[in-house]
Every structure is written in C-alpha cells, then in structure tokens.
Amino acid sequence: MNGDTEVRYVRQSEVVGKKVIEQRGYIVGEVKDISFRLLDDRVELALTIRYGDTERDIPWSQVKSIGDVVLLKVDYEPPAKAKPEVTAPPLIAKPQPAPITPKICPNCGYPNDPKNRFCIKCGTKLPE
Ligand SMILES: [Zn+2]
C-alpha cells in the first residue's frame, strides 16, 4: 500500500454547486448532484452537472481533482448552447471565362468563331 495515498471521502455538500472545469479550462457546468448506480460488485458514481437547462452525468472516473472547482481529466464539449455561431465563409466568385468576341464578317455580318479564317456563311476572308 502506498503511504502517500490519502483516502479522502468527498461530501456531497462539498461538491454541489461547484463549477466543473474540463482539462482545457472550459466550464462544463455546475454540480447539481452526486449520482450513483449499483452494479453487481460496486457502485459507480457520477457527477450530475447542469449547464443552462441541460443536465448530464459525468462518470467519477473522469474527475481529476476537486478543489475550489471540480477539475476533469478529459476534454468536454459544453452543451450546444455554448457553440459559437459559425459564419459562412464568403462566397468566392468563380472567375468568368473571357468573353469570346466573334469575328464579324465584313461582307454579311455573320458572327463567326474567332478561330475561323473564312466566314462560314458566305466564305469571305475574315480579318485577322
Ligand atoms: Zn459572311
């Protein structure tokens, strides 16, 4: 047995009302209650925490330490309320293809494809 390990019991009244901070430093909520469930060979404890209108249970195994606040040893996402509003990235205008200037036939006025050397309608040689 390790002599440095001090067995310490935490009273519910010590914990209830304390802020719960996850390992990165975010407030996850406030302890509302200590909950437990009975398993075959042991009792599993959880902290019931409240954040706004949301309540949830954090298994005791995720609690790192209890001091002025309850510190968790895991990352925890705060409930939906704390989600920052995501602003849509600005729409980037697609580059428009350069407009094709048709070669107007000097004879009949037909707009020819600029690659054409002769008017496809009347056969007149188009200007370069
Ligand atoms: Zn023509």
Describe, in plain words, how this protein is organized in 3D.
The chain is mostly beta strands. 3% of the residues lie in helices and 32% in strands. The protein folds into two domains: 12-72, PRC-barrel domain (SH3 type barrels), CATH 2.30.30; 100-128. The chain has one helix and eight strands, in the order αββββββββ. The strands form two sheets. The protein has a six-stranded mixed beta sheet with strand order 4-3-2-1-6-5, with no helix packed on it. Residues 105, 107-108, 110, 119, 121-122, 124 line the site of zinc ion (ZN).
Tags for this entry?
128 residues; mainly beta; 2 domains; six-stranded mixed sheet; rod-shaped; binds zinc ion
Helix content: under 10%
Largest sheet: 6 strands, mixed
Q: Beta-strand level of the residues, as a percent range?
A: 25-35%
- CATH architecture descriptor name of the largest domain: Roll
Outline: rod-shaped
Question: In short, what is this structure?
Answer:
This protein is 3% helix and 32% strand. The protein is mainly beta. Strands 4-3-2-1-6-5 form a 6-stranded mixed beta sheet, with no helix packed on it. A two-stranded antiparallel sheet has the order 7-8.
